[in-house]
Amino acid sequence: MDNILLGVGTQKGLFLGRRRGDGSWGFTGPHFPMQAVYSVAIDTRRSVPRLLAGADSSHWGPSVFRSDDLGASWHEPARPAVKFPQGTDTSLERVWQLHPAGAAAPDVVYAGTEPGALFRSDDGGETFEFVRSLWEHPQREHWGAGFGGQAVHTVVTDPRDPGAVTVAVSTGGVYRSRDGGASWAPSNTGVRADFLPDPYPEFGQCVHKIAQDPTDPDRLYLQNHGGVYRSDDGGALWTDIGKGLPADFGFAVTTHPRLGGVAYVFPVSDGGDRYPPGYRCQVYRTEDAGGSWSALSAGLPHEDHYGIVLRDALRTDDADPAGVYFGNRNGEVYASADEGDSWKLVASHLPAVLCVRAAVVQ
């Protein structure tokens, strides 16, 4: 059985889980108690996996911590790893995303932040440089702030091309760079923004999450504030694939680590309640790139259930068969060791879950 590390960022600290040989789980934590952990990365590109955590202290402010011993100890740099430079007239509120780039750029890590900005590290997340070109994009001053704040919350990199980077901004939409971040262009054609006078604007969509297909990096899946979409050309054009879902609103989307066309979402009713449709705890999976969807609920609560899954709290690992994980605002974490066919509760009574990450480690 693969040795899995599961990172669970919550409103009050980080919890680290390890799967035992009998399939049960044990957790340590909270690491960073009383700090909201919005972002976690497990960087397995290194000989020794590195953990990165974006934690936000209400007293000391936000910081990026790193561990090279699977969470036994943590290092915080003497100077902030992520910091807005002088002249921007702003300061960091939190780090929403920590994204290790592909094997072609083994030391590159991106950080997406609130306010909506991008930072790049070339030393595995020890220090970060401000990507000024995105901050100075002429459309940035017109980006709105979603209910959760204005943030670069998603970073996607192309494993074939280190210069190809895609980000999602709430509320700004999708932006792509094909020159290593020197320039950026909006990439939202086909994505609705029902809350704007023009429902199909060039930018301004409230994109909640993007995930990349493992076999075709040009295929992307997008969970929008109303609508689930797929792009087959790297985000240039988006097609609605929400038919067959009980609701096309939601926050999270993730993909299988190896199988093309397989993606997962957790629908949420877009009404006044914002609960799972019918108060049913169900993950939906497509195995044909959004042509059809199947409800996955074996082992999940069948009675009324009100926990919703936030944008970074549904993920897969790189095991074979793949594990799928989600945490909700009820403080519950569910895991599937068979690609979503069945589930078990592995943690409960945690603070509200903000993000999860899982990977095979030695």
From TrEMBL:
The lineage of its organism: Bacteria, Bacillati, Actinomycetota, Actinomycetes, Kitasatosporales. InterPro entries: WD40/YVTN_repeat-like_dom_sf, Xyloglucanase_GH74. GO terms for biological process: xyloglucan metabolic process. PANTHER family: EXO-ALPHA-SIALIDASE (PTHR43739:SF5), XYLOGLUCANASE (EUROFUNG) (PTHR43739). It comes from Actinacidiphila oryziradicis. This is Exo-alpha-sialidase.
